[in-house]
């Protein structure tokens, strides 16, 4: 397939009904990034690493991610494809690296869904406690119990997975209303916290040179990259938007919005909570923040927003993951079940249900880490590393694909080649340094969130398992993808959006 741009003036591609617009893309991407969840939980996890310098680390992480977003947008204009990075990296760098991008995005998303399942369960148990329900029979409800939160969250995951089967349009409508409520609560409580918080504002919060160590800086950056992760969900539905450029606009709008919310939340939390309070409350950080600012029932609103955010991100996580697997399946790099399209809904229904089932299995496996806060830390570190690798490879693909601009248009080359390359190298260096620090921080393997070898083993397993699956696809399935690196054209097997 030659490079080309699908714009508003192009004729509709055969059989493809485009019903999504920029707002729908923003709803899917913003729900996938889950700002409320990242603020309510991610800020506490990050503060335990970088101390009071949350605004600084969020700003620093935004720079390479912005460069990566530019690479996504430019690549999407010349080759819109539900597989995005998997297709672009395979074409420009190597089919093996392209498969790695597609694979780690799937396994990281499944891990994220398992993590968010537990977060959802924790929010529900906390809400039950506020309503006076602290026990069910002889069982005491504990919002920091991985077993209890996972069991409850799995029920919610099953419901949202079935909803995702019925179509992206349905999901986008639901997520839009959830986002409106979440952001209204966030803006209200964060604004009030900034205005009334007892701790004085300090410009040192924005000073990255005050972060205690290089290890803390690298880990904090990857944790922050994890918070931004999800903006690219807009590109996974690029075959279902009216104009593929809408996907680029949606991704950029989402990313800039996340930066504003993260900075607002960082400052607000540090105005209201001490460093020890922020780092010590983990999955219950947002509820604790609400309690410090208001009495019941208003204090419960941030917790309700967290629950809505977790539910929306579960659904938003299922949707792009199933579409990434769809794109890989039509290239025969994954089995045919992933590309079966529902005749009724026009979605990859079987693949969507499988993603939900895999997330349940991973969530069950996470029960070996009994405390929810420890499970969150382990998952976020592992996913942060593999996401950094995926982003870096996609950005390098853009730099290679548009390298001819270095000779013809230096201004465009800055945005299309140099900035993505710098962003990619920064993320690879951070991932490598953090992996090395994990390796040298322990002398034995233990299933624990503070064991460096365990934290390093998780992303390595995610990446290396892809090598085995890629080998099977190349030599057993005889996938043509490994001959050319070019994914199936989006005009081929079609993903139809069900209009309600």
What does this protein look like?
- By secondary structure, the protein is mostly helical.
- 70% of the residues lie in helices and 1% in strands.
- The protein contains 19 helices and 2 strands.
- It has helices spanning 22-33, 35-50, 54-78, 85-92, 95-130, 146-165, 168-196, 214-228, 233-236, 244-272, 275-280, 285-293, 301-329, 349-365, 372-401, 405-408, 410-440, 452-475, 481-484, and strands at residues 135-136, 139-140.
- Strands 1-2 form a two-stranded antiparallel sheet.
- Strand 1 (135-136) and strand 2 form a beta hairpin.
- The longest helix has 36 residues, at 95-130.
- The relative contact order is 0.20.
Short description:
The protein is mainly α and 500 residues long. The chain is 70% helix and 1% strand. The radius of gyration is 22 Å and the shape is globular.
Explain the layout of strands and helices.
Layout: H1 22-33, H2 35-50, H3 54-78, H4 85-92, H5 95-130, E1 135-136, E2 139-140, H6 146-165, H7 168-196, H8 214-228, H9 233-236, H10 244-272, H11 275-280, H12 285-293, H13 301-329, H14 349-365, H15 372-401, H16 405-408, H17 410-440, H18 452-475, H19 481-484
Antiparallel strand pairs: 1-2
């Amino acid at each position: 397939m030659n490079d080309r741009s699908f714009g508003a003036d192009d004729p509709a591609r055969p059989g493809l009904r485009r019903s999504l617009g920029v707002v729908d893309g923003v709803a899917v991407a913003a729900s996938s990034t889950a700002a409320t969840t990242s603020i309510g939980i991610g800020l506490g996890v990050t503060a335990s690493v970088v101390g009071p310098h949350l605004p600084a680390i969020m700003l620093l992480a935004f720079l390479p991610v912005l460069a990566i977003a530019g690479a996504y947008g430019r690549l999407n204009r010349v080759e819109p494809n539900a597989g995005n990075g998997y297709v672009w990296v395979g074409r420009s760098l190597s089919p093996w690296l392209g498969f790695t991008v597609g694979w780690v995005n799937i396994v990281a998303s499944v891990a994220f869904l398992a993590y968010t399942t537990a977060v959802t369960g924790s929010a529900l148990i906390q809400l039950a406690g506020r309503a006076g329900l602290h026990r069910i029979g002889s069982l005491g409800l504990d919002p920091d119990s991985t077993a209890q939160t996972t069991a409850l969250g799995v029920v919610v995951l099953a419901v949202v997975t079935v909803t995702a089967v019925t179509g992206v349009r349905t999901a986008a409508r639901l997520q839009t209303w959830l986002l409106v409520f979440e952001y209204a609560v966030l803006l209200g409580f964060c604004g009030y916290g900034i205005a009334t918080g007892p701790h004085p504002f300090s410009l040192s919060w924005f000073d990255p040179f005050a972060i205690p160590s290089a290890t803390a800086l690298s880990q904090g950056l990857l944790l922050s990259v994890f918070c931004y992760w999800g903006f690219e969900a807009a590109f996974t539905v690029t075959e279902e938007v009216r104009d593929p450029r809408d996907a680029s606009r949606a991704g950029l709008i989402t990313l800039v919005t996340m930066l504003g919310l993260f900075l607002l939340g960082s400052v607000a939390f540090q105005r209201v909570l001490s460093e020890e309070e922020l780092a010590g409350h983990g999955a219950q950080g947002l509820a604790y923040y609400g309690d410090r600012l208001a009495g019941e029932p208003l204090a419960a609103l941030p917790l309700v927003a967290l629950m809505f955010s977790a539910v929306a991100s579960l659904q938003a996580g299922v949707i792009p993951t199933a579409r990434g697997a769809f794109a890989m399946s039509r290239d025969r790099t994954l089995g045919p079940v992933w590309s079966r399209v529902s005749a009724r809904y026009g979605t990859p229904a079987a693949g969507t249900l499988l993603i939900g089932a895999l997330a349940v299995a991973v969530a069950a496996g996470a029960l070996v880490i009994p405390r929810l806060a420890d499970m969150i830390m382990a998952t976020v570190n592992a996913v942060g590393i593999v996401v950094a690798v995926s982003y870096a490879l996609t950005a390098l693909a853009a730099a290679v694909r548009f390298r001819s601009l270095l000779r013809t248009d230096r201004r465009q080359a800055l945005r299309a080649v140099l900035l993505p390359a710098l962003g990619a190298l920064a993320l690879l260096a951070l991932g490598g340094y953090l992996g090395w620090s994990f390796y040298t921080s322990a002398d034995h393997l233990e299933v624990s969130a503070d064991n460096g070898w365990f934290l390093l083993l998780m992303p390595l397993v995610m990446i290396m398992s892809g090598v085995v699956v890629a080998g099977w696809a190349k030599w057993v399935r005889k996938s043509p993808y490994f001959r050319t690196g070019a994914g199936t054209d989006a005009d081929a097997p079609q993903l139809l959006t069900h209009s309600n």
